[in-house]
Design brief:
By secondary structure, this protein is of the alpha/beta class. The chain is built from 28 helices and 21 strands. It folds into three domains: 2-90, no CATH class; 102-321 and 371-408 and 696-714, 3-Layer(aba) Sandwich (Rossmann fold); 414-481 and 489-690, 3-Layer(aba) Sandwich (Rossmann fold). The structure holds pyridoxal-5'-phosphate. This is glycogen phosphorylase.
């Protein structure tokens, strides 16, 4: 039975459909659109108003609407079908894990991440890292891995993006009400709520642990906004990546050290510890401390725990790798190193980095030294990471540095449009979802008639255009402006999407290098193009905000207006709508700074080919027939030259390859056969190889099982 703290506040639900509440408290619904439909159909307007949040919805919904649903045979039929699917999922005995590893009963994987992108109604993610973590947890559930995830709840979430009249981004923080999210206070074996303690300078901080059910696995999220923390400490976990470095190190202490303590208090006994990015690397120190307290020397303790630890590095951008000044480490850890039996200098040595900006304590160095299993997130990124951290391995050449690579993937059910899922159900065979990573299954895509795939894709595009127009109207209403009546976006024309964080290396304004050329391309008679942009800049990244402002203002210029739009608040809902609805996904980072990228995988899965720089995952995926490659696979010493060359290449592709193929050679029924060929090739080549299923199977085989003492290590 689920314990519902706020039960009393719900609208009473008729007995026949009472399990809607249980369903709301298992995030399984986030990747089952048919489960979301059960709520939406009861009151579509409220579903939008509550931003697709079933817990909130059940608190707000009118009694008579619930009664009407409970009396509607058609509704009950759908309800029963969803509950049956849910029950059979939760109760399944034959699973991926039991099939592949029948003798691994002792394995338990603890997965730490600073952010989790599970759904737009739970805004505790900022971008790619969080989305990847969320997808990772969902897939761990689908494969029935012995898995538990640990992170923060951030009661004020990540910021909501607003733009003012000039297109300047400002941040809005909305408090997450715990009664409105599927949070369940975690209880220890004695039935007490779990609050963990971590020492900070001059005080103890307390973090309360909440449990979220994600299908078959649990996600534990900590919250410091509780009594008896000081007001300042209560703010500590308020926001993701908010505050200064002191706040950041405090957060990371609670994540790494508090996270281990939370697992212990709840009776978990992990045999594998996975640090997803360096934010949680302090867990290495806590695991050593536990052993030193039992009389083991620090050296031996470190050797022992390393064999169980896994670390994934995610960025080749130096600022993305946390490093703290030594005086700050001293302030936070002077009480900790004696517990490890170390002196100050010995302690600093564990993660000392003197390569850049003077000596610092580097979380990536700590994570690498504290784990035997490490990986980057694409082949190219693995290579770059081996060069970046070569100094930690004296005497080894770049190729010998023990950082492997496992390329990212996306959780298929989360990102696939329901309309396409129906199509795939019809053509890929009954068990396609059990074999998501099998290329043979996806070859059947070619059996879908061109006009059927085209019609579905046109429908998805039309939905996206309606979604975009509504978002833009809402933006104007918010600013108390007239909603423009000029035509905005046109049905049927080639539509290109660009959505990502506005970090400068992603070069959101590359398309605008030569405005006249762009105007020509956008308005070419018979072959027009339109663009949909979205993306957030980090609240402290003014150059990123200037990029947003540039796009926003350029989109109003004569010759571009109506054909270029910028959508506020890039979140998972916008990400879904865009990757499912555009014709082409554009990605033009400055090579080689994109570690992997995953949004393009979502687009391809939905039949929208990529037009991308050969960076991150794309060099592995691009085969000449499944999309387009911008520029060359080379390094530049001059960034202006790189930008100019890449822009020229992009214009050339848009004009001669992409638009021509989209508009030319249509059948009598107006179906672009040559175009559909690229769509199908993009689905068949990307969907299996860049699925989260393939990624997690690689993690299990190459990292998790060896770390758990089953099977041998590779690197
Ligand atoms: C997929 C996704 C990302 C990550 O995509 P990149 O290709 O790494 O930029 C970021 N934000 C949202 C909302 C997403 O859906």
């Amino acid at each position: 039975m689920i314990r519902l703290e706020h039960e009393i506040l719900f609208t009473p639900i008729p007995e026949r459909i009472a399990r809607l509440r249980e369903l709301a408290y298992n995030l399984w619904w986030t990747w089952h659109p048919e489960a979301q439909e059960l709520y939406r159909q009861i009151d579509p307007d409220l579903w939008e108003l509550d931003y697709h949040n079933p817990v909130d919805f059940l608190r707000d919904v009118r009694q008579r609407k619930l009664d009407a649903a409970a009396a509607d045979p058609a509704y009950l039929k759908r309800f029963d079908a969803v509950m049956k699917a849910f029950d059979s999922y939760m109760g399944a005995k034959k699973t991926w894990f039991s099939k592949h590893h029948p003798n691994a009963k002792d394995v338990q994987i603890a997965y730490f991440s600073a952010e989790f992108g599970l759904h737009e109604s739970l805004p505790i993610y900022s971008g790619g890292l969080g989305i990847l973590s969320g997808d990772h947890v969902k897939e761990a559930s689908d494969m029935a891995l012995p898995f538990v995830a640990v992170g923060f709840i951030y009661p004020q979430g990540y910021f909501r993006q607003r733009l003012d009249h000039s297109g300047w981004q400002f941040a809005e923080y909305n408090k997450i009400n715990f009664a409105d999210v599927p949070a369940i206070p975690a209880l220890d074996p004695d039935g007490h709520e779990v609050v963990v303690e971590v020492e900070l300078p001059g005080r103890t901080i307390y973090a309360k642990v909440y449990k979220f059910r994600v299908g078959r696995v649990e996600l534990l999220l900590m919250d410091t906004d509780i009594h008896p923390n000081s007001p300042q400490d209560r703010e500590l976990s308020a926001r993701l990546y908010g505050g200064d470095q002191e706040m950041r190190i405090s957060q990371e202490l609670v994540l790494g050290i508090g996270g281990v303590r939370a697992l212990r208090r709840l009776g978990f006994t992990p045999t594998v510890w996975h640090m997803n990015e360096g934010h949680s690397a302090f867990l290495v120190l806590e695991l050593c401390r536990e052993l030193v307290a039992q009389g083991v020397s620090f050296e031996d303790a470190l050797q022992q725990i390393k064999t169980q630890c896994v670390f994934t590095t995610h960025t080749p951008v130096p600022a993305g790798n946390d490093a703290f000044p030594l005086p700050m480490i001293e302030k936070f850890f002077w009480n900790f190193w004696p517990q490890l039996g170390l002196t100050r200098d010995e302690f600093m040595q564990i993660a000392l980095q003197e390569q850049q900006w003077g000596p610092t304590f580097a979380m990536t160095a700590l994570a690498l030294r504290g784990s035997d299993f490490h990986n980057g997130v694409s082949k190219l990124h693995g290579h770059v990471a081996r060069g970046m951290w070569q100094w930690l391995y004296p005497g080894k050449s770049q190729d010998e540095v023990p950082i492997a690579s496992i390329t990212n993937g996306v959780h298929t059910a989360t990102w696939l449009a329901p309309e396409l899922r129906e199509l795939y159900n019809a053509y890929l065979g009954k068990t396609w979802e059990d074999n998501l990573d099998d290329p043979k299954v996806w070859k059947k895509i070619y059996q879908i008639p061109d006009e059927v795939l085209w019609t579905t894709r046109q429908k998805l595009k039309s939905q996206l255009l309606a979604f975009a127009r509504e978002r833009i109207a809402a933006h104007h209403r918010h600013l108390h402006q007239h909603v423009p009546t000029d035509p905005l976006l046109e049905e049927g024309i080639l539509t290109i999407g660009f959505a990502r964080r506005f970090a400068t290396y992603k070069r959101a304004t590359l398309l605008f290098k030569d405005i006249e050329r762009l105007k020509y391309l956008i308005n070419r008679p018979g072959k027009p193009i339109q663009f949909i942009f979205a993306g957030k800049a980090h609240p402290k990244d003014d150059p990123g905000k200037h990029f947003i402002q540039d796009v926003y203002q350029l989109a109003r210029q004569p010759g571009l207006a109506g054909r270029i739009v910028f959508l506020e608040e890039y979140d998972m809902a916008v990400g879904r709508a865009m990757t499912q609805g555009v014709d082409v996904w554009l990605n033009n980072p400055r090579r080689p700074y994109e570690a992997s990228g995953t949004s393009g995988m979502k687009a391809s899965l939905n039949g929208a080919p990529n037009c991308s720089i050969l960076d991150g995952w794309w060099p592995e995926a691009y085969n000449g027939q499944n999309g387009w490659a911008i520029g060359e696979e080379r390094e530049y010493s001059n960034q202006d030259e790189q930008d100019w060359n890449d822009a020229q290449s992009l214009y050339y592709l848009l004009e001669h390859e992409i638009a021509n193929r989209f508009y030319d050679g249509r059948t009598d029924a107006d179906v672009p056969t040559a175009w559909i060929q690229v769509c199908k090739e993009s689905i068949a080549s990307v969907a299996p190889a860049f699925s989260m299923r393939r990624m997690l199977a690689d993690y299990v085989r190459e990292l998790y099982m060896p770390a758990a003492g089953h099977g041998s290590a590779k690197g």
